[in-house]
# Entry
Amino acid sequence: MSRESMGKLCESKAADFLRKKGYRIKETNYRCRTGEIDIVAQDEDCLVFVEVRSRTVPGLVSPEESINGAKQRRLVSAGLTYLQTHKDLPDACRFDVVAMDLDGQGRVTRIELIKDAI
# Structure
């Protein structure tokens, strides 16, 4: 499975996972000149920018630990652009991470939501 198709699969699984937790998905794969946000959702009265991270091979770094400072800055910048270019948004917002491990066949072996991760 290509990296791109694996990414789409993981983002779809993450969106389903978030829906089961009561999130309303507003948009996926939001892109602007400063970066990309995998999922934009609403959790009660809070707008949530979600980064989806996955690993198929256990490594030294977990999916959630792989979000370095540069990636965090791009996410925040893209989030600010989203807030400036969209109307009728909740007053509060946060950045969550959905981290997942997959086996060799693309089955989720672990999925975790980390609220307010960035």
Notes: The CA atoms of residues 64 and 95 lie 13 Å apart. The chain has a mean pLDDT of 90. The first helix runs from residue 3 to 20.
